[in-house]
């Protein structure tokens, strides 16, 4: 495999592209529910179309990863994703029927599933496994900065000119992302390295071979399960905290939501850069451990501190966990599947399984909160987070024991 010593331009444009793609990948994001509500939609209908989008992302995760393993047209697919996200949002602007909105959310859900593996694949192909952590750190830092800026600008535009202005912002961000993608030189991408191969060795892309590679990797399966538990505990924690404060009349809902997003994103930027810089020194495994440890602390604070100020430490810790995992997760999958040629489908597999946890989290937490109170719901989420830590530590001990035995 060749040494990755090329001009930094392509790597820099890839990082900057993440700034603009962050807004594109999210689509209308938090504004979708408000927009549909303004179109006289009912709360249950809004929930249905959002669920459809989430399910589409989950279902498409593994096929999207498999596609990124096979194709050399990675820039083209990434460009198509950016365009389709804008088209999907234009459908929201022009048609308001349930069928049209559901179809657009399903399509954009599939696109979201493809963007993550596409960016990870291009990153690995540009810099190789040796420098992947630093590239992932830059990607994540630019992405979080893009989310912070886009949410802030969208809020201002929506306030003064209505939600239609948010669509214009999305279109502008998509155009800028396309310009950045164009500046990434395809000849600088090692397409074998981009799928986790260390040489030009042949690899089978049959469905049986792919599933065999995934299911025979016990560390990958354990990582997927642990990430599912992490997101089962994590996804509902902030919404539940917001509901607790709003139900007591302690905060303004819109201002509180905006503040939580800003706090977390501001922390994620430096954490992603630090994770990318020190991942090789401290290992991806230790970064995952730190991210996991932050979650139960969030749960304890949320369950015991009944004050709007609780959002500050809760979201600071959320920024720590998300910033670390954004770098550590794809890096760890690349490490586990190194040499297999199935890195992207492995990443899609883990993202799909963790998405299941994120999808179930609000329903589980809401059911417990309705029957036993918010404090009990936070306690349950904290318990799930602790379970994830225990499984991760057990996996780490087994891995260390196997490594020691192989060296003996």
Automatic annotation (TrEMBL):
Gene3D superfamilies: MFS general substrate transporter like domains. It comes from the Bacteria. PROSITE patterns: MFS. Keywords: Membrane, Transmembrane, Transmembrane helix. The chain crosses the membrane at residues 12-34, 46-64, 76-98, 165-181, 220-241, 253-275, 287-305, 311-333, 345-368, 374-393. Signal peptide: none annotated. SUPFAM superfamilies: MFS general substrate transporter. It holds the Pfam family MFS_1. Residues 1-400 form the Major facilitator superfamily (MFS) profile domain. This is MFS transporter. It comes from Methylophilus glucosoxydans.
